Fold this sequence. Notes:
The chain is mainly α.
Amino acid sequence: MHVMTFLRQLRVGMVVLLLLTAVVGVAYPAAVWAISRLGTSGAEGSSLTDANGCVVGSRLIGVDPQVPRGEPDPFFHLRVVGSVADSDAFTPGDPAAALPSNQGPSSEVLARFVEERRAVIAAREGVSAQDVPVDAITGPGSGVDPHISPAYAAIQVSRVARVTGLGEERVRELVAEHTDGRQLGFLGTERVNVPELNVALGLTAPSCTGGPIGG
Length: 215
């Protein structure tokens, strides 16, 4: 009797094991993979092309455009990506800066970075330090977030309009066109997709030959 009971329990256990293996080990991973492929043009995400049809990046990955020192700056900027050294609060173009840092709320290094970023951004945009939004001086968790707040975009409008010659009203229209609303109407906050916005302003791939900004 005990042997028969044991065999029945063993049979039930094996059936449960096989079912869970099929669902958790095969069906679930396959479903997640299939859903992840919906609406994408490739594994890297949604490619972003310029007016010449050249790929300049992805709508999902934030890459901050840089201009040579002293030259007019016609583009919108993303959030800072952090730093790989205690001596540089910005580190533009350094992929290692996208990695998480160990600087917490009580870090003196982070506090110094925040004040330095606030001063640099305020000077660049011609606004007071108090008008620089929080997201402009703090990095996103991923380090490559393509979005900024509408408030950060707003303080950049005057500079971009002046350099491109498009006029502030037109630049505000472009910002509005590339502003995403809250998910499902109530999740998150409004956000501006900077890579898409900069392409609309005339950003091109380095190997492409394009017309003048706003042309």
